[in-house]
Design a protein that fits this description.
With about 140 residues, the chain is mainly alpha-helical. Helix content is about 70%, strand content about 0%. The protein folds into 3 domains: about 30 residues, no CATH class; about 25 residues; about 70 residues, no CATH class.
Length: about 140
Amino acid sequence: MRKRKAELIAQGVAEAEMRDRGWHRCRNDEGKRMRDPDDAAAFVAKREETAKRFLKALEREFGGTWHKQSDAIAFALATYAPKTAEMIVDSEHLWPVVQEVRRVEWEAEAEGAAELADRIRRNSAAGADDPFSPF
């Protein structure tokens, strides 16, 4: 990885461009410059063809409901291919989904914290007026 990065820098490719394109696109063929934008359509077509082959193979092996076994798929990847799982989560296709899930979780946490703070504030105010309150 370091060697390939050094080669790309020597070819005049900026680090920001490498980050934007992702490692899998930067490392294509050793010694060659990164793909030209003209190759983008061929790359997309090949990726879609490969994705369809994966889906057909999964359906053939596990039946039409294979996608309902997401926990088993996640367990298999996390246990037997953790680097692959990491690359999938970091891929340009799932990264926005992961960020959206995290945003929803953060909002729920913030709502919970705000609700708790409101409840504490109300209870504190009620305790000040309560003659039996120890406060």
